[in-house]
Design brief:
Layout (H helix, E strand, L loop, with lengths): L1 H6 L1 H19 L4 H29 L2 E5 L16 E5 L1 H24 L6 H20 L3 H19 L5 H32 L4 H7 L4 H17 L9 H7 L2 H25 L5 H23 L5 H25 L4 H40 L10 H4 L1 H14 L6 H16 L1 H26 L5 H6 L4 H19 L1 H17 L1 H6 L3
Antiparallel strand pairs: 1-2
């Protein structure tokens, strides 16, 4: 049985949460406890499958899983592409582990946070569909199915954003769905352009056959713009504040990794499909988007009174660090000396920041949810003295805040210091701006701490006490990981990050796995 799961882990990681989503309403007929247990079981199983994928990828240097056949095939004798291929390398497995870890934390947290709300069967079904969409997006080796999983993720995310059904949440969901549809259409058009030339949709096959024609370059621009929009990079960030702000707090935490799935697709397209075509131009494009995202995101955050919108803008800002690190590596891709000297290090910092951001931003959104759960408001001006009645949440918030600000010994510092050092060797000004953004981030979260947690205690909140354990334990798990990754960054780098960077740079290995 263990061998079966090991061999088919890639298929199970996508199929199980998708099938479980359809089964949730049926299981709910047995009672809420049965439904909750079923959801946890499905998420835990999916997480185990992602770890098995990671182990197999590490052992075999990546692997191919072909649906409906034992051997992948790019084309039939007639020249038409056949079979759906899941292509898992260190980067894919890395992203799958991040997604399923947050799925577990968010699902457990949701049991109490969402208790008493209507249509919870649909809520947990959509949560599982989001999980399936994310794992599918980061494991597919097919450009068309990348579009399919992107749409699956977008539709389920829109449903979760509009869950409350109020005017603001409905508007946010509509805005998110509109923007996502535009991005998905761009991906579909690009896939059609490439298919019309090469009769291929498999990413490895396309990467091997691509001629870098004018149409190919148009497809590159469409794909680049679509996935930059999906990850919420400035100036395509207009959906982020509304979507993150109006969604339930656990959904906001999960949307962070949904956006990072878009980042994965952007990196995969730039490095693997197009093999660094116009690397300097694309690299500087990522760098520009990263710097805009960092500075505009943190600037907008400093003026927010709504705690969740403030954190949403910080999510935009932190995405900039990832784009900056990977962008520097892409910009020097054609220069082996520069790539070896600081380019690979910059990419390691960028990918390390992906997992760190998922942890500390997930924690911050969940602590915001805890505050809203007890205080009954999202307005910082209406909060005071929460530390008196919510000591555990206060400590967890401080851990998340110090981590996002890049202070030691937390994980945010571990990834940011790598980005600072490597980017400084590329362009000192960019590194200085990145450090300035971290200072402004710290100032912004000092404001949140001062407004919400200090001052005289609110008597009504003090009587309410700390949030239930089923809420702070998931937050505690993220806090422990934040501290552990900050204290042992080399272990995380060697286990997850460096193999992922190597996989991203190894286009020939990705192509060779299929050809």
């Amino acid at each position: 049985m263990a061998v079966l799961f090991y061999q088919h882990s890639a298929a199970f990681a996508v199929a199980v949460p998708l099938a479980a989503a359809f089964a949730v309403p049926l299981v709910a007929k047995l009672g809420k406890a049965a439904r909750n247990a079923f959801v946890v079981l499905a998420v835990v199983f999916t997480q185990i499958m992602s770890w098995l994928m990671f182990q197999r990828s590490s052992a075999e240097g990546g692997f191919i899983y072909t649906l409906g056949a034992s051997v992948p095939s790019l084309a039939s004798p007639a020249g038409f592409p056949v079979r759906i291929v899941l292509h898992i390398d260190a980067l894919s497995a890395f992203m799958a582990v991040i997604s399923t870890t947050l799925a577990f934390v968010v699902s457990v947290y949701s049991f109490r946070y969402m208790k008493g709300r209507k249509s919870l069967d649909k809520y947990f079904a959509l949560l599982l569909v989001m999980t399936a969409g994310m794992t599918g997006l980061v494991t597919t080796g097919d450009l068309f199915n990348m579009f399919v999983f992107l749409e699956l993720l977008s539709v389920s995310s829109a449903g979760m954003i509009g869950y409350y059904g109020k005017g603001e949440s409905a508007e946010a969901a509509f805005k998110y769905m509109t923007v996502s549809s535009i991005g998905a259409l761009m991906v579909l058009f690009a896939a059609g352009m490439l298919y019309s030339q090469y009769n291929l949709l498999n990413i490895a096959g396309l990467a091997d056959a691509i001629q870098f024609s004018f149409i190919d370059r148009i497809a590159l621009v469409l794909l680049f713009a679509a996935f930059a929009l999906k990850c919420g990079a400035v100036p395509m960030h207009m959906w982020v504040s509304d979507s993150y702000g109006e969604a339930p707090a656990p959904v906001s935490a999960f949307l962070v990794v949904a956006s990072q799935a878009g980042l994965y697709a952007l990196f995969r397209i730039a490095f693997t499909l197009f093999g660094g075509l116009s690397a300097a131009v694309m690299g500087w494009g990522m760098i520009t988007l990263g710097m805009l995202s960092m500075f505009i995101g943190v600037t907008m955050a400093m003026f927010q009174k709504d705690i969740k919108r403030l954190m949403a803008y910080h999510a935009v800002s932190q995405t900039g660090y990832m784009l900056l690190g990977i962008g520097v590596g892409l910009a020097v891709l054609s220069s082996p000396v520069a790539l070896e000297t600081f380019g690979i290090s910059a990419m390691e910092g960028g990918l390390f920041h992906v997992i760190n951001h998922a942890l500390y931003k997930g924690l911050l959104f969940l602590t915001a949810g805890a505050v809203i759960y007890r205080a009954g408001t999202r307005n910082l001006n209406n909060m005071s003295g929460l530390a008196h009645s919510m000591p555990v949440t206060t400590v967890l918030f401080i851990i998340g805040a110090l981590s996002i600000a890049g202070l030691p010994p937390f994980n945010g510092f571990a990834s940011k210091i790598v980005i600072y050092e490597s980017v400084f060797m590329f362009n000192p000004l960019l590194s200085v701006i990145a450090m300035l953004v971290s200072i402004l981030t710290l100032a912004s979260f000092v404001k949140v701490f001062y407004s919400a947690f200090t001052g005289p205690a609110d008597r009504s909140i003090k009587k309410a006490g700390e949030v239930p354990a089923v809420m702070w334990i998931p937050m505690g798990i993220l806090a422990v990981l934040i501290i552990a990754f900050g204290l042992a960054p080399d272990t995380v780098m060697n286990l997850f990050v460096r193999p992922a960077v190597h996989a991203l740079l190894n286009q020939a290995g990705y192509i060779g796995g299929v050809i």
